[in-house]
Protein backbone atom coordinates (compact mmCIF):
# COMPACT_ATOMS: atom_id res chain seq x y z
CA UNK A 1 0.00 0.00 0.00
CA UNK A 2 1.41 3.38 -1.00
CA UNK A 3 1.04 6.21 1.48
CA UNK A 4 1.69 9.92 0.87
CA UNK A 5 4.70 11.26 2.70
CA UNK A 6 4.20 13.00 6.02
CA UNK A 7 5.22 16.29 4.46
CA UNK A 8 2.64 15.99 1.68
CA UNK A 9 -0.03 14.76 4.05
CA UNK A 10 0.59 17.63 6.47
CA UNK A 11 0.31 20.18 3.65
CA UNK A 12 -2.91 18.68 2.31
CA UNK A 13 -4.66 18.16 5.65
CA UNK A 14 -2.93 20.56 8.04
CA UNK A 15 -5.99 22.76 8.47
CA UNK A 16 -8.17 19.73 9.17
CA UNK A 17 -5.79 18.31 11.75
CA UNK A 18 -5.18 21.72 13.32
CA UNK A 19 -8.90 22.17 13.97
CA UNK A 20 -9.00 18.89 15.90
CA UNK A 21 -5.75 19.50 17.75
CA UNK A 22 -6.91 22.99 18.76
CA UNK A 23 -9.79 21.39 20.64
CA UNK A 24 -7.43 19.19 22.63
CA UNK A 25 -4.88 21.96 23.17
CA UNK A 26 -7.16 24.83 24.10
CA UNK A 27 -10.58 23.56 25.19
CA UNK A 28 -9.54 20.57 27.29
CA UNK A 29 -7.32 22.58 29.65
CA UNK A 30 -10.37 24.68 30.50
CA UNK A 31 -12.42 21.54 31.15
CA UNK A 32 -9.75 19.94 33.34
CA UNK A 33 -8.09 22.48 35.63
CA UNK A 34 -6.41 19.93 37.89
CA UNK A 35 -2.80 18.89 37.38
CA UNK A 36 -1.91 15.64 35.69
CA UNK A 37 -0.48 13.33 38.34
CA UNK A 38 2.09 10.59 37.72
CA UNK A 39 2.70 8.05 40.50
CA UNK A 40 6.29 6.87 40.39
CA UNK A 41 6.62 3.13 39.79
CA UNK A 42 9.44 0.73 40.53
CA UNK A 43 12.32 1.20 38.10
CA UNK A 44 11.14 4.62 36.87
CA UNK A 45 13.37 7.66 36.90
CA UNK A 46 12.58 11.36 36.68
CA UNK A 47 14.28 11.42 33.28
CA UNK A 48 12.07 8.58 32.06
CA UNK A 49 8.94 10.36 33.28
CA UNK A 50 10.04 13.56 31.55
CA UNK A 51 10.43 11.72 28.23
CA UNK A 52 7.02 10.08 28.62
CA UNK A 53 5.23 13.41 29.02
CA UNK A 54 7.59 15.39 26.76
CA UNK A 55 8.39 17.79 29.60
CA UNK A 56 11.94 18.60 30.70
CA UNK A 57 13.17 17.02 33.93
CA UNK A 58 14.11 20.50 35.18
CA UNK A 59 10.52 21.70 34.67
CA UNK A 60 9.12 18.76 36.64
CA UNK A 61 11.65 19.32 39.43
CA UNK A 62 10.84 23.01 39.65
CA UNK A 63 7.08 22.37 39.51
CA UNK A 64 7.31 19.85 42.37
CA UNK A 65 9.99 21.65 44.40
CA UNK A 66 12.41 18.73 44.03
CA UNK A 67 16.05 19.47 44.78
CA UNK A 68 17.44 15.93 44.57
CA UNK A 69 15.70 13.49 42.17
CA UNK A 70 17.81 10.61 43.52
CA UNK A 71 15.76 10.71 46.71
CA UNK A 72 12.44 10.04 44.94
CA UNK A 73 10.79 6.81 46.04
CA UNK A 74 8.21 4.44 44.57
CA UNK A 75 4.72 5.85 45.08
CA UNK A 76 5.82 9.50 44.95
CA UNK A 77 3.19 11.64 43.22
CA UNK A 78 4.62 13.97 40.59
CA UNK A 79 2.57 16.86 39.23
CA UNK A 80 3.18 17.17 35.49
CA UNK A 81 3.17 20.74 34.18
CA UNK A 82 1.19 21.51 31.05
CA UNK A 83 3.20 22.04 27.88
CA UNK A 84 2.46 23.39 24.43
CA UNK A 85 4.42 22.92 21.20
CA UNK A 86 4.65 26.11 19.14
CA UNK A 87 2.80 25.95 15.81
CA UNK A 88 3.05 28.09 12.69
CA UNK A 89 1.67 31.58 13.31
CA UNK A 90 1.81 31.37 17.12
CA UNK A 91 2.81 34.34 19.27
CA UNK A 92 3.55 34.45 22.98
CA UNK A 93 0.57 36.74 23.52
CA UNK A 94 -1.75 34.45 21.56
CA UNK A 95 -0.61 31.34 23.43
CA UNK A 96 -1.04 33.06 26.80
CA UNK A 97 -4.55 34.20 25.85
CA UNK A 98 -5.52 30.71 24.61
CA UNK A 99 -4.56 29.15 27.96
CA UNK A 100 -5.98 32.06 29.99
CA UNK A 101 -2.67 32.82 31.70
CA UNK A 102 -0.97 36.24 32.02
CA UNK A 103 1.73 36.66 29.40
CA UNK A 104 4.24 37.71 32.08
CA UNK A 105 3.67 34.40 33.91
CA UNK A 106 4.15 32.49 30.66
CA UNK A 107 7.42 34.34 30.06
CA UNK A 108 8.66 33.80 33.61
CA UNK A 109 7.79 30.10 33.56
CA UNK A 110 9.92 29.65 30.45
CA UNK A 111 12.68 32.13 31.37
CA UNK A 112 11.83 34.30 28.36
CA UNK A 113 11.31 38.01 27.82
CA UNK A 114 9.10 40.06 25.53
CA UNK A 115 11.89 40.32 22.95
CA UNK A 116 12.26 36.53 22.65
CA UNK A 117 11.47 35.01 19.26
CA UNK A 118 9.68 31.66 19.45
CA UNK A 119 10.05 29.09 16.67
CA UNK A 120 7.90 26.27 15.36
CA UNK A 121 8.55 23.18 17.48
CA UNK A 122 9.58 25.05 20.64
CA UNK A 123 8.03 23.51 23.75
CA UNK A 124 6.61 25.99 26.25
CA UNK A 125 5.60 25.22 29.83
CA UNK A 126 2.14 26.52 30.64
CA UNK A 127 1.97 27.77 34.25
CA UNK A 128 -0.88 26.39 36.32
CA UNK A 129 -3.81 28.65 37.05
CA UNK A 130 -4.06 28.90 40.80
CA UNK A 131 -7.40 27.84 42.27
CA UNK A 132 -8.42 28.00 45.91
CA UNK A 133 -8.68 24.59 47.56
CA UNK A 134 -10.54 25.86 50.62
CA UNK A 135 -11.98 29.03 52.06
CA UNK A 136 -11.79 30.24 55.66
CA UNK A 137 -14.59 32.40 57.03
CA UNK A 138 -15.23 33.72 60.51
CA UNK A 139 -18.51 33.13 62.35
CA UNK A 140 -18.82 34.56 65.89
CA UNK A 141 -15.03 34.94 66.00
CA UNK A 142 -14.58 31.19 65.34
CA UNK A 143 -12.76 30.21 62.13
CA UNK A 144 -14.72 27.83 59.93
CA UNK A 145 -13.04 26.03 57.06
CA UNK A 146 -15.25 25.49 54.03
CA UNK A 147 -13.85 22.57 52.00
CA UNK A 148 -13.40 22.87 48.28
CA UNK A 149 -16.07 21.48 46.00
CA UNK A 150 -15.42 17.93 44.82
CA UNK A 151 -13.95 17.46 41.36
CA UNK A 152 -16.79 17.05 38.89
CA UNK A 153 -16.20 15.20 35.64
CA UNK A 154 -17.08 17.74 32.88
CA UNK A 155 -17.75 14.96 30.40
CA UNK A 156 -21.34 13.77 29.92
CA UNK A 157 -21.97 10.06 29.44
CA UNK A 158 -24.82 7.92 28.14
CA UNK A 159 -24.20 4.22 28.74
CA UNK A 160 -25.15 1.76 26.01
CA UNK A 161 -24.91 -1.96 25.50
CA UNK A 162 -21.75 -3.00 23.67
CA UNK A 163 -22.47 -4.09 20.10
CA UNK A 164 -20.49 -7.32 19.71
CA UNK A 165 -20.67 -7.02 15.91
CA UNK A 166 -18.58 -3.82 15.95
CA UNK A 167 -14.80 -3.95 16.09
CA UNK A 168 -13.57 -1.74 18.94
CA UNK A 169 -9.96 -0.75 19.76
CA UNK A 170 -10.05 -2.66 23.06
CA UNK A 171 -12.06 -5.45 24.68
CA UNK A 172 -14.65 -3.63 26.76
CA UNK A 173 -16.92 -4.34 29.70
CA UNK A 174 -18.97 -1.17 29.27
CA UNK A 175 -19.34 1.55 26.70
CA UNK A 176 -20.71 5.07 27.08
CA UNK A 177 -21.24 7.84 24.52
CA UNK A 178 -19.81 11.26 25.33
CA UNK A 179 -21.85 14.33 24.50
CA UNK A 180 -21.62 18.07 24.93
CA UNK A 181 -18.30 19.68 24.02
CA UNK A 182 -16.81 16.28 23.23
CA UNK A 183 -18.37 13.53 21.09
CA UNK A 184 -17.10 9.97 21.03
CA UNK A 185 -17.15 6.88 23.21
CA UNK A 186 -15.60 5.83 26.50
CA UNK A 187 -14.85 2.12 26.73
CA UNK A 188 -14.32 0.69 30.20
CA UNK A 189 -11.88 -2.19 30.00
CA UNK A 190 -9.27 -3.89 32.18
CA UNK A 191 -6.13 -2.04 33.20
CA UNK A 192 -3.21 -2.61 30.81
CA UNK A 193 -5.52 -4.08 28.16
CA UNK A 194 -3.94 -3.81 24.72
CA UNK A 195 -5.29 -1.09 22.43
CA UNK A 196 -5.33 -1.89 18.71
CA UNK A 197 -6.03 0.15 15.61
CA UNK A 198 -9.41 -0.33 13.96
CA UNK A 199 -8.16 1.19 10.70
CA UNK A 200 -4.81 1.39 8.97
CA UNK A 201 -3.21 4.81 8.69
CA UNK A 202 -0.37 7.19 9.50
CA UNK A 203 0.33 8.41 13.04
CA UNK A 204 0.00 12.21 12.90
CA UNK A 205 0.54 13.14 16.54
CA UNK A 206 1.05 11.61 19.97
CA UNK A 207 1.32 12.98 23.48
CA UNK A 208 -0.40 13.62 26.81
CA UNK A 209 -3.55 15.72 27.00
CA UNK A 210 -5.01 16.83 30.32
CA UNK A 211 -7.89 14.59 31.37
CA UNK A 212 -7.20 12.04 28.64
CA UNK A 213 -3.74 10.62 29.37
CA UNK A 214 -1.66 9.68 26.36
CA UNK A 215 -3.46 10.31 23.05
CA UNK A 216 -2.72 9.03 19.54
CA UNK A 217 -4.03 10.67 16.35
CA UNK A 218 -4.10 8.48 13.23
CA UNK A 219 -5.22 9.47 9.74
CA UNK A 220 -6.52 6.79 7.40
CA UNK A 221 -6.02 6.78 3.65
CA UNK A 222 -9.57 8.03 3.11
CA UNK A 223 -9.00 11.07 5.34
CA UNK A 224 -10.70 9.99 8.56
CA UNK A 225 -8.86 10.90 11.75
CA UNK A 226 -9.04 8.35 14.58
CA UNK A 227 -8.28 9.54 18.11
CA UNK A 228 -7.32 7.01 20.80
CA UNK A 229 -7.06 8.50 24.31
CA UNK A 230 -6.56 7.22 27.82
CA UNK A 231 -3.41 5.21 27.15
CA UNK A 232 -0.83 4.84 29.89
CA UNK A 233 1.85 3.64 27.49
CA UNK A 234 2.29 4.07 23.72
CA UNK A 235 4.18 1.91 21.23
CA UNK A 236 4.01 4.35 18.30
CA UNK A 237 5.39 7.70 17.24
CA UNK A 238 4.46 10.33 14.61
CA UNK A 239 5.17 9.13 11.09
CA UNK A 240 4.59 5.42 11.78
CA UNK A 241 2.53 3.60 9.14
CA UNK A 242 0.14 1.21 10.88
CA UNK A 243 -2.04 -1.63 9.65
CA UNK A 244 -5.41 -2.75 10.92
CA UNK A 245 -5.05 -4.47 14.30
CA UNK A 246 -1.60 -3.08 15.14
CA UNK A 247 -0.93 -2.46 18.85
CA UNK A 248 -0.89 1.20 19.93
CA UNK A 249 -0.24 0.73 23.65
CA UNK A 250 -2.19 -0.15 26.79
CA UNK A 251 -5.17 1.33 28.63
CA UNK A 252 -4.48 3.37 31.77
CA UNK A 253 -6.65 4.54 34.66
CA UNK A 254 -8.80 7.61 34.03
CA UNK A 255 -7.63 10.64 36.02
CA UNK A 256 -11.10 11.34 37.43
CA UNK A 257 -13.02 8.05 37.61
CA UNK A 258 -9.99 5.89 38.38
CA UNK A 259 -11.36 3.25 36.01
CA UNK A 260 -9.39 1.80 33.07
CA UNK A 261 -11.02 3.74 30.23
CA UNK A 262 -10.21 4.22 26.56
CA UNK A 263 -11.56 7.32 24.83
CA UNK A 264 -12.21 6.75 21.14
CA UNK A 265 -13.23 9.51 18.71
CA UNK A 266 -13.39 9.70 14.93
CA UNK A 267 -13.46 12.82 12.74
CA UNK A 268 -14.40 13.22 9.10
CA UNK A 269 -13.85 16.62 7.49
CA UNK A 270 -13.36 18.32 10.87
CA UNK A 271 -16.62 16.94 12.29
CA UNK A 272 -16.99 14.14 14.85
CA UNK A 273 -18.93 11.07 13.76
CA UNK A 274 -20.30 8.03 15.57
CA UNK A 275 -17.20 5.87 16.19
CA UNK A 276 -19.32 2.72 15.75
CA UNK A 277 -20.06 3.76 12.14
CA UNK A 278 -16.50 4.78 11.20
CA UNK A 279 -14.77 2.66 8.54
CA UNK A 280 -12.77 -0.35 9.77
CA UNK A 281 -9.93 -2.21 8.16
Please provide a written account of the structure.
The chain is of the alpha+beta class and 281 residues long. It folds into two domains: 6-126, Roll (Membrane-bound Lytic Murein Transglycosylase D, Chain A), CATH 3.10.350.10; 156-277, Glucose Permease (Domain IIA), CATH 2.70.70. Helix content is 20%, strand content 32%. The protein contains five helices and 17 strands. It has helices at 6-31, 46-53, 57-63, 92-98, 103-109; strands at residues 36-39, 77-80, 82-85, 123-126, 134-139, 142-147, 156-160, 174-179, 184-188, 194-196, 201-209, 213-219, 225-234, 241-242, 247-251, 261-268, 271-273. The strands form four sheets. Strands 7, 8, 9, 10, 11, 12, 13, 14, 15, 16 and 17 form an eleven-stranded antiparallel sheet that branches. A two-stranded antiparallel sheet has the order 1-2. Strand 11 and strand 12 form a beta hairpin. The protein starts with 5 loop residues before the first helix and ends in an 8-residue tail after the last strand.
Amino acid sequence: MKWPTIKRMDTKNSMRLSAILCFFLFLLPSMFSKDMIHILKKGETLYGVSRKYKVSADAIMQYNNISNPDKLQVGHKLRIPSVYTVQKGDTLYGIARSFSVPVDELLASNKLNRETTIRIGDVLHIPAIETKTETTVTVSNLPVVVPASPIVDPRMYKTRKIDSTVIWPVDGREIAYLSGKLYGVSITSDKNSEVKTVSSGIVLSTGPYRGFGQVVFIQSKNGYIYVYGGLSRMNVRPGDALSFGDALGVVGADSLSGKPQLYFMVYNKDKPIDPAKAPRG
